[in-house]
């Protein structure tokens, strides 16, 4: 072993130990490893930042944007609506969500399947009080095993097929992976349905600050539009559609106010409703029931053609001119260019119209206005934006467009028209261009710590290959496998692929380990197919770290996971696959020599 190889192995080992220790942030550890690699000459400065343009980073960033657009569309929620009454706790949620993600990943790219299902899972967790940490990792693992079933499900399958094409002149076909991958997927679903209890029950997610701020109960005013119909058009139907998370405080009809209307009261076009609930629940109900949000359609003055309309949450300061005023006595739209969409006041339920509410210091308002003018308007009104957090209340949603764009992108990727990174990136751009997601929302969807973590680790992991460490490993393995029974050799090959993929990423693992498998098969006089399949399964099954596959990385922040959490659920599944998969491969793909 050369000094360069020793330093490379040492850098990787130290980085992994720091991850496991958990004393510092993951992105800081990755950046520190990158800096050390540059200082010691292991990473050339000209390639130190290549990770930021790597396909994996592009795929993760694009998937986050697409996930936000699909969440905004509400389509997955609509499709899952018949199941929601039965998903009251984690015992039902984990099997259903992980099964849905697994099956979807059999038909699409696994990271795309997870991107489709994550927003719905987070909403279900929030509405039922279940910790996202109990749901998201089983879904991620389900997407990984589901991706094993088809050629296009995961990158290792595609690369293994290309390796077979180069070595034997014939690639694996689309469904060649199904007998092994499909069986392993069923086994994993059964395991995850029970083993999720190994995960932390109440881990705080990295995004929980927004959830905490969203807990304010607002009163907002909506109108029943002409020609409106919704189920039986009763008050009870609205409250049922909101999962009892929204209360109809009052009904205003022909200048008559009906406080706390009876659930069986019929709603008529022209009725004005005062609704109380958290902004997310209000937004979903307004869109789902096709109600008209009062004042939301009043014109907003724009300074620039490229300006955007924003809806923000702001608190009334102690010196605000709004104190003691009403929206009617102080025309907010005419004077300040903003519309009042909702009011929240701690410990008090407002039953009057928003325009007649006398405001107090500490009230939280939902205001709509032009992006460029809102800061000036808030300053003039004496209001402070709440943690600079943008909220959304009502508004139009592109129900099918984001999913259609993602589906087309996946088809183009599946048939080789576009590479995975190009297809996902084009889809992410299209959802913004078509208005399914605003640019501000796209930026907000990007999880910077996760992207930095992956981008910094890519050059660090490349030091092993650049120093010749991979060749050294290959020679060690060839000697160690010599004379072993075929099934034991196959198991060892799969274990090597599993061990390597967290540090080399799954694509690099296949490119490095697959040739070793071909060489061993040739040396032993056996068919190369079972060894290539073993490499594909091993490289596609990283259940031990958050950095070996994009799916595990995607759930790291929203699930509030730590590095060691992955092994808690993933180690038994890894052992289970190592015990079952080699024998299964040997049955489907016999060792008979070629």
Automatic annotation (TrEMBL):
Q: Does the keyword Transport apply?
A: yes
Q: Which organism is it from?
A: Caulobacter hibisci
Please state every residue range assigned to the domain named RCK C-terminal.
207-291, 299-384
**What topology in the membrane does the UniProt record assign?**
Multi-pass membrane protein
Name under which the protein is recorded: SLC13 family permease
Coarse class of the protein's main subcellular location: membrane
Membrane-spanning residues where? Answer: 7-24, 30-49, 56-76, 96-118, 139-160, 180-199, 399-430, 442-460, 472-497, 503-524, 569-592
Q: Which Pfam families match?
A: CitMHS, TrkA_C
Q: Does the keyword Nucleotide-binding apply?
A: no
Q: Where in the cell is it found?
A: Membrane
Query: By its UniProt entry, which InterPro entries does this protein fall under?
Result: Cit_transptr-like_dom (IPR004680), DASS-Related_Transporters (IPR051679), RCK_C (IPR006037), RCK_C_sf (IPR036721)
Family annotation (CDD domains): SLC13_permease
Keywords, sorted A to Z? Membrane, Repeat, Transmembrane, Transmembrane helix, Transport
Q: Which domain of life is it from?
A: Bacteria
């Amino acid at each position: 072993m050369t000094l360069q190889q020793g330093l490379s192995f040492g850098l990787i080992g130290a980085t992994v130990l720091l991850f496991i220790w958990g004393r510092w942030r993951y992105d800081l550890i990755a950046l520190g490893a990158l800096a050390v690699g540059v200082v010691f000459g292991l990473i050339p400065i000209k390639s130190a930042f290549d990770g930021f343009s790597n396909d994996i980073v592009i795929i993760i960033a694009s998937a986050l944007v697409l996930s936000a657009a699909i969440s905004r569309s509400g389509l997955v929620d609509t499709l899952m609506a018949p199941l929601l009454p039965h998903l009251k706790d984690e015992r039902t949620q984990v099997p259903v969500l992980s099964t849905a993600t697994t099956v979807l990943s059999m038909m699409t790219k696994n990271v795309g399947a997870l991107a489709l299902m994550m927003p719905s899972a987070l909403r279900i967790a929030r509405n039922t009080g279940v910790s996202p940490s109990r749901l998201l990792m089983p879904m991620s693992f389900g997407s990984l095993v589901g991706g094993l079933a088809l050629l296009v499900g995961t990158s290792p399958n595609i690369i293994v097929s290309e390796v077979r094409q180069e070595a034997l002149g014939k690639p694996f076909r689309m469904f060649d992976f199904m007998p092994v991958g499909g069986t392993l997927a069923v086994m994993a679903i059964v395991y995850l349905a029970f083993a999720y209890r190994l995960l932390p029950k109440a881990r705080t997610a990295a995004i929980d600050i927004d959830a905490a701020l969203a807990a304010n109960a607002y009163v907002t005013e909506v109108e029943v539009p002409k020609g409106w119909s919704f189920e039986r058009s009763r008050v009870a139907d609205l409250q049922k559609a909101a999962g009892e998370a929204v209360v109809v405080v009052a009904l205003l009809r022909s200048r008559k106010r009906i406080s706390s209307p009876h659930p069986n009261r019929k709603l008529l076009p022209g009725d004005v409703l005062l609704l109380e609930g958290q902004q997310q629940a209000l937004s979903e109900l307004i869109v789902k029931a096709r109600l008209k949000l009062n004042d939301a359609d009043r014109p907003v003055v724009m300074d620039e053609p490229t300006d955007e309309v924003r809806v923000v949450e702001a608190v009334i300061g102690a010196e605000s001119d709004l104190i003691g005023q009403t929206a009617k006595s102080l025309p907010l739209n005419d004077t300040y260019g903003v519309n009042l969409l909702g009011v929240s006041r701690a410990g008090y339920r407002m039953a009057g119209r928003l325009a007649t509410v006398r405001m107090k210091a500490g009230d939280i308002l939902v205001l709509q206005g032009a992006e460029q003018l809102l800061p000036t308007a808030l300053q003039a009104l004496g209001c402070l934006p709440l943690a600079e957090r943008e909220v959304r209340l009502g508004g139009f949603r592109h129900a099918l467009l984001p999913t259609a764009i993602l589906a087309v992108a996946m088809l183009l990727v599946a048939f080789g028209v576009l590479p995975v990174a190009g297809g996902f990136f084009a889809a992410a751009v299209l959802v913004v261009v078509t208005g399914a997601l605003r640019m501000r929302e796209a930026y907000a969807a990007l999880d910077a710590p996760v992207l930095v973590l992956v981008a910094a680790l890519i050059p660090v992991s490349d030091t092993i290959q650049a120093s010749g460490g991979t060749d050294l490993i290959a020679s060690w393995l060839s000697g160690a496998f010599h004379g072993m029974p075929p099934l034991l050799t196959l198991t060892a090959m799969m274990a090597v692929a599993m061990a390597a993929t967290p540090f080399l990423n799954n694509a690099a693992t296949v490119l490095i380990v697959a040739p070793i498998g071909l060489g061993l098969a040739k040396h032993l006089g056996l068919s190369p197919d079972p060894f290539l399949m073993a490499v594909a399964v091993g490289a596609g099954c990283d259940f031990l770290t958050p950095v070996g596959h994009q799916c595990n990385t995607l759930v790291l922040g929203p699930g509030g996971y730590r590095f060691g959490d992955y092994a808690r659920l993933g180690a038994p599944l890894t052992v289970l696959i190592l015990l079952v998969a080699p024998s299964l491969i040997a049955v489907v793909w016999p060792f008979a020599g070629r």
